[in-house]
């Protein structure tokens, strides 16, 4: 084998050994987005958090999770301060710096929330003309027509909770969010009697675990995907999904 190939293999092996030597702990960052991932009584919780923790446990690893604003999550991964991001949309332009686990953690359904006393029915893009829609900074909305349309205005809020607060105070006309996440937050904030959503979805997407593009993490990405697929076929996974099936009843 040529010397250069032996050197490359040695570097890759050293990277894997260095990763294992950290105590088999995967350092992830995320922004709270209940019920998928959030903090509860000072502890991490949520559907995708529990899925990730279980899969890593089966791989002999522990999970260390830090909550940050979304843009800081992206910067933490870019500068090597984290091993990966929990719950992120898979975009082609992110593949240069991120290694996406092939199997998704969850499916999301993006809908438009409105105040119950100020409904704006939505069936087509034209229905949104001249409205102000609340969005979250740094988030991706996969429907290109919605993402690029000039028919309406977009207004960012620092958090998903702030978006719902602006909605009930009529500071925005609509808010785009995942159906389950929006209902969960509305229940947590005591706003279910003030907030509803249009049943026609504006898009569907999937949430993934993305790791830093590092040779030491490539094997982990493949192992995680395989173990996640196995977990999804088990009764334990079905029970976990059932616990979070009703957005109005937070999972324990």
CATH superfamily of the largest domain: Periplasmic binding protein-like II
As for the number of domains, it is: 2
Mean pLDDT: 88
Topology as a string of helices (H) and strands (E)? HEEEHEHEEEEHEHEHEEHH
Give the class-level CATH name of the largest domain: Alpha Beta
**Radius of gyration based on Cα positions:** 20 Å
Uncertain segments: 6-23
Tally the helices: 8
Shape: globular
Strand share of the residues? Answer: 15-25%
Beta strand count: 12
Distance between the first and last residues' Cα: 55 Å
The largest β sheet comes out as:
10 strands, mixed
**CATH-derived topology of the largest domain:** D-Maltodextrin-Binding Protein, domain 2
> Could you say what the CATH architecture of the largest domain is?
3-Layer(aba) Sandwich
Class inferred from helices and paired strands: alpha/beta
Helix content: 25-40%
Family: Belongs to the bacterial solute-binding protein 3 family.
Organism: Ectopseudomonas guguanensis
InterPro entries: Solute-binding_3/MltF_N
Protein name: Polar amino acid transport system substrate-binding protein
């Amino acid at each position: 084998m040529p010397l250069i190939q032996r050197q490359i293999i040695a570097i890759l092996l050293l990277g894997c050994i260095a990763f294992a030597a950290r105590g088999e702990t995967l350092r992830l960052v995320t922004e709270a987005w209940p019920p998928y991932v959030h903090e509860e009584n000072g502890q991490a919780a949520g559907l995708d958090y529990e899925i990730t923790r279980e899969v890593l446990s089966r791989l002999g690893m522990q999970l260390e999770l830090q909550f940050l604003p979304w843009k800081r999550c992206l910067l933490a991964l870019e500068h090597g301060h984290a091993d990966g991001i929990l719950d992120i949309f898979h975009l082609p332009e992110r593949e240069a710096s991120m290694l996406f686990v092939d199997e998704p953690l969850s499916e999301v359904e993006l809908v438009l929330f409105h105040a119950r006393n100020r409904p704006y029915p939505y069936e087509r893009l034209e229905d949104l003309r001249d409205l102000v829609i609340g969005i979250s900074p740094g988030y991706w909305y996969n429907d290109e027509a919605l993402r690029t349309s000039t028919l309406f205005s977009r207004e960012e809020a620092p958090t998903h909770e702030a978006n719902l607060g602006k909605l009930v105070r009529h500071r925005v006309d609509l808010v785009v969010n995942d159906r389950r996440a929006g209902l969960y937050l509305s229940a947590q904030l005591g706003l279910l009697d003030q907030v509803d959503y249009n049943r026609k979805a504006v898009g569907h997407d999937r949430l993934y675990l993305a790791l830093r593009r590092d040779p030491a993490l490539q094997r982990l990405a493949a192992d995680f995907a395989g173990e996640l697929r196995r977990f999804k076929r088990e009764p334990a996974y079905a029970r976990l999904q059932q616990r979070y099936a009703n957005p109005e009843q937070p999972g324990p």
